[in-house]
Amino acid sequence: MEGIQDVNISINDSCSNLYDHRHKAQVLIPLLYSIVFIVGFSGNTLALHVIRLNLKKLNSTTLYSINLVVSDILFTLVLPLRIFYYASGFHWPLGEVLCKVTGLIFYINTYAGVNFMTCLSVDRFIAVVLPLRFSRFRRIRNVKYICIAAWLLVLAQTLPLLSMPMTNLEPGDYITCMEYPNFEKVENLPFMLIGAVFLGFGIPVVTIIVCYSVLFWKVHSHARMRNMKDKSGRSKKAIGIICCVTLVFLVCFSPYHINIFQYMIRKILYTPTCEELQAFQVSLHVTVCLMNLNSCLDPFIYFFACKGYKKKILRIMRMQVSTSMSSAVRTLPDSGSRDIAEGTKIHLNSIRSDH
């Protein structure tokens, strides 16, 4: 094992093309992250404001959403530092400690998102499929304990990063931060990352697929009965939440974890070449960008999960439409008056010319 580890480190050190794409990335990645920052921060701040106004109506779904909102806002607050890093051409002059802090928050947001989306899916599954048998898991007191357990699991998944090197001085005299080659010196890294993929992604995604499949079957097989008994639209709410969660997993989390998994399998079977490592490094930047989109897509989950958020968004949209229509209506009399004035002027001029 030590021999394989030494070969991996020597190959990593000899690869000089790992960041050849940084001149393109320093334009594209900051642009994408700026959009993520604006949309994610505004959408999640609005969600937090609406939830705060409706704390008296706190339920299990809202409580899970609060934790998801807090995680996303925390992530967006450190995103400007990542934008600065990529805009500087993968150069991090802010030191190892701050690099570890931003890296830790990044992975906390990732796995907090995974855990609480899974909790939301199971919560909707219980609400529709097993509302009586497992209703105790939806009581606020028990949900608080579940949220604490979810955060403890997130910390167990992410805190080991603090013991790993996160920065590295590259041959071009620039310092990289939170890049995969910086972790290659960690012993048994492939096995650690494969375990992290199973725990942080595999188990949650299987849970969500099972919940979605059973819930979908339940809703459609008992559609008439559900329409009569479920006047509150609980089934539609559940379908909306799980569809959004599934979309976030497919678009954001799946590419990154599948990418990590396949490369770690290759590292166990043989020693990848420089070209393979460079291709993996580029694909990581693409899949990490996709994963960070989750803070933009999470507000769509709140749209279905939180009634207050949905009403607030619809009210804002109606205000925008009514404001636009009012502006259009106000301009009509002005243009109409000008037309009448011009017509009158032409008519008077024609009379004068006749005389």
TrEMBL record:
* Entry keyword Transmembrane: yes
Q: Sorted alphabetically, which InterPro entries does this protein's record hold?
A: GP183-like (IPR047160), GPCR_Rhodpsn (IPR000276), GPCR_Rhodpsn_7TM (IPR017452)
- Transmembrane stretches in the record are 27-51, 63-85, 105-130, 142-162, 191-217, 238-258
For this record, an example GO cellular component is: plasma membrane
User: What coarse category fits the chief subcellular location reported for this protein?
Assistant: membrane
Indicate how the chain sits in the lipid bilayer. Multi-pass membrane protein
| A GO molecular-function annotation | oxysterol binding
Q: Which Pfam families match?
A: 7tm_1 (PF00001)
SUPFAM superfamilies hit by this protein: Family A G protein-coupled receptor-like
Q: Which UniProt keywords apply?
A: Adaptive immunity, Cell membrane, Disulfide bond, G-protein coupled receptor, Immunity, Membrane, Receptor, Transducer, Transmembrane, Transmembrane helix
- Location relative to the cell: Cell membrane
Q: Which residues form the G-protein coupled receptors family 1 profile domain?
A: 43-302
Gene3D superfamilies given in the database record: Rhodopsin 7-helix transmembrane proteins (1.20.1070.10)
* An example Gene Ontology biological process: adaptive immune response
Please state which protein family the record places this protein in: Belongs to the G-protein coupled receptor 1 family.
Name assigned to this protein: G-protein coupled receptor 183-like
Native organism: Scleropages formosus
What is this organism's lineage? Answer: Eukaryota, Metazoa, Chordata, Craniata, Vertebrata
